[in-house]
Design a protein that fits this description.
- The protein is an all-alpha fold.
- Helices cover about 75% and strands about 0% of the residues.
- It is globular, with a radius of gyration of 22 Å.
- It starts with a helix and ends with a helix.
């Protein structure tokens, strides 16, 4: 009898903990359930968060200790930014949605240019002002929401997913700069990783299904070690503990740098609307509220201002983590807070951070390509909910075509000033969003009625 009681109790406890994963404001489930979900988010974004700092430190010619400090500062500030988004004051600062923040590749080309022309200190001066620009945009986010009906939101989310495909394929082939880029070993490991993720997604049950991406990465990591792809020397060289400090690289202001970064902050504020929409639509089957968008964008701007003061590179919402939320439906904010705490630990304990960065890029590519596909399909679902009139298909088709086309052939803007290429060719999301908004405003809706009556 007692055995039966405890067995039933364990079953009920297990069901209760699993249910908590899908409650945004629920308690933190037991670590048996929450830790794999949190670690999955961390593994999906850690390399992307670290890589821009590594590149900029190289361009800036920083010494070894300064390079480690830049990476640490960026990780710590990403953790603080994530916690601000998760638990900020709704509509005032923070979306209070299951979002992960991290250093964004969207700023990389501009940061390289600023560092080459001026210094790394000018990045943080421009970031400080750019963050304030985003705060101002956030104040008017409710008005901006009118520009993003479901058709436009779906187009933006779809383009975000498409824009991530080249990143996934580059990772699957071994990562740019890898002397073995495109080798059969890289492709074999990435395909094995992808196969494990896909099989667990479709045939796994319970935690096997929910943690499919994490388990795929673990399996791929083990396989890659047999090919000599895992190098642990960075772990041995890293220190045990260190804290970031205020303005470690200085803060300098220069007009063209501020203008270039501010434009990117305005664009990333718009992209944040798409990520927040993808999160609520994919994870909670609803549109984001106006207060959530307002608080999210203000939080995005404020967290970047804080990051600039402590030497953390510009951050943004991470679309790959949005994809994980959409595919798993795990929206418990405390689970993602656990991710932020691990990210904070990675920044404070360099050895831990170094260990995570030993994951081969081909493994990450194989694990994340399905996540990026999930983002694109979330956008497609939202678009498909609208009438497929000639007007609507024109908006979606032309926006995606111009956005993706120009970004893939960036030299098509070579006769224009460099800032034009930087703004419109660095990310397909920017141009696709602008084209979609303009077409939605100028194309007569009467055409839609006419099309539907045919």
């Amino acid at each position: 009898m007692f055995h039966s009681f405890w067995t039933n109790h364990d079953i009920l406890s297990s069901m209760s903990n699993r249910k908590l994963l899908f409650e945004m404001d629920g308690k933190l489930p037991s670590l048996r359930y929450s830790f794999p979900m949190a670690l999955q988010h961390l593994v999906a974004m850690i390399v992307g968060c670290v890589t821009p700092a590594i590149i900029i430190s190289t361009v800036a010619g920083l010494d070894s200790s300064s390079r480690i400090l830049l990476i640490q500062s960026s990780l710590v500030c990403a953790a603080i930014s994530t916690l601000l988004q998760l638990f900020g004051i709704k509509s005032i600062c923070g979306a209070r949605l299951p979002l992960i923040m991290g250093v964004s590749f969207a700023y990389l080309a501009t940061m390289q240019s600023i560092t080459t022309s001026f210094s790394i200190a000018h990045i943080f001066g421009a970031q400080l002002i750019g963050g304030l620009v985003a705060v101002v945009i956030g104040i008017f986010a409710k008005r901006l929401q009118r520009l993003f009906p479901p058709l436009i939101t779906g187009t933006v989310v779809f383009t975000i997913g498409l824009s991530l495909y080249p990143t996934a394929i580059t990772y699957m082939a071994g990562g740019s700069g890898n002397p073995d880029f495109g080798s059969w070993q890289n492709w074999l490991v990435s395909i094995i990783t992808l196969s494990v993720v896909t099989l667990l997604n479709h045939f796994g049950k319970g935690m096997l299904k929910l943690a499919s991406i994490l388990l795929g990465i673990v399996f791929g990591y083990i396989v890659s070690s047999f090919f000599g792809m895992v190098n642990l020397s960075a772990v041995g060289d890293a220190g045990l503990f260190s804290l970031p400090r205020p303005a470690p690289f200085g803060i300098e202001f220069e007009f063209s740098s501020i203008l270039a970064i501010s434009v990117l902050f305005a664009i990333n504020a718009v992209q944040a609307i798409g990520d927040m929409s993808a999160t609520t639509i994919g994870g909670m089957d609803r549109e984001p509220e106006g207060d959530e968008l307002r608080g999210g964008i203000i939080g995005f701007g404020l967290s970047n201002t804080i990051s600039a003061l402590f030497g953390g590179l510009p951050n943004a919402t991470y679309s790959q983590n949005v994809g994980i939320v959409s595919s798993t439906k795990v929206v418990n904010r405390k689970v993602l807070a656990l991710t932020a705490l691990m990210l904070l630990l990675a920044g404070l304990v360099p050895k831990f951070s170094a260990l995570l960065t030993t994951i081969p890029q081909c493994v990450l590519g194989g694990a994340t390509v399905s996540v990026f596909a999930s983002i694109a399909m979330t956008g497609m679902k939202l678009v498909a909910m609208q009438p497929m009139s000639y007007r609507n298909t024109s908006i979606v088709g032309l926006s995606a075509a111009l956005g993706m086309g120009v970004s893939l052939v960036s030299e098509s803007l070579s006769r224009f000033p460099s800032w034009v290429t930087m703004v419109f060719a660095s990310s397909p999301v920017v141009l696709a969003t602008i084209v979609a908004i303009i077409m939605n405003l100028i194309l007569p809706k009467e055409d839609e009625k006419t099309e539907n009556s045919k």
